[in-house]
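re: the backbone from monday

yeah here it is again, tokenized this time
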């Protein structure tokens, strides 16, 4: 009897691919719950599935991208082994075929993360519970996404930091190879010194 209960628990909590219908429900519920009060149209403008082939595991994973008529978008994982909402905005649109390299690389990290978890048979019951809650429109205890987060540092227009010369004068190389990542880390370190 105990063994059968344990097996039942494993079957119930086993992660699974998320179909389009479930992804749509999760995206719409999330978008509507956290949308600005001025938004009244929660209908989908368009959506698509981005597919990624992970050569390490010879596995295919994807993410759903839903654009809304009121503006904004929600990116939903295609497997419930991951947190359901990977990113979102209540402004602009993520147009298919027009994603820049930065966004593509950002999504590629999600693809690899999801693929790794699938291939390791990783189960996170907390994520499964979050999926269920969003799907059932239950946001009890959910954190608010409506409060803007202030910038940690100044913008490039007013900053004394920049990723181009003469700012590289004291760096080992001033040809741009220092790049954005070391600059960002330098700014964070300076902020917390």
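seq for it, each position gets an aa:
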């Amino acid at each position: 009897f105990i063994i059968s209960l344990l097996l039942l628990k494993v079957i119930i909590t086993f992660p699974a691919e998320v179909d389009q219908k479930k992804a749509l429900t999760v995206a719409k519920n999330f978008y509507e719950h956290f949308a600005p009060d001025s938004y009244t149209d929660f209908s989908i403008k368009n959506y698509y599935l981005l597919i990624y082939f992970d050569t390490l595991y010879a596995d295919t994973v994807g993410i759903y991208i839903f654009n809304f008529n009121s503006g904004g978008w929600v990116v939903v994982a295609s497997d419930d082994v991951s947190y359901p909402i990977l990113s979102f905005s209540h402004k602009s649109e993520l147009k298919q075929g027009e994603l820049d390299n930065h966004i593509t690389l950002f999504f590629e990290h999600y693809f690899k993360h999801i693929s790794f978890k699938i291939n390791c048979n990783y189960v996170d019951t907390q994520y499964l519970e979050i999926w269920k809650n969003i799907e059932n429109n239950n946001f009890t205890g959910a954190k608010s996404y409506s409060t803007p987060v202030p910038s940690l540092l100044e913008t490039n227009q007013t900053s004394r930091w920049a990723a181009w010369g003469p700012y590289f004068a004291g760096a080992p190389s001033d040809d741009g190879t220092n790049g954005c990542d070391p600059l960002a880390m330098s700014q964070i370190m300076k902020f917390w010194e």
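Confidence is low (pLDDT under 50) at residues 1-13. Residues 14 and 123 are 6 Å apart (CA to CA).
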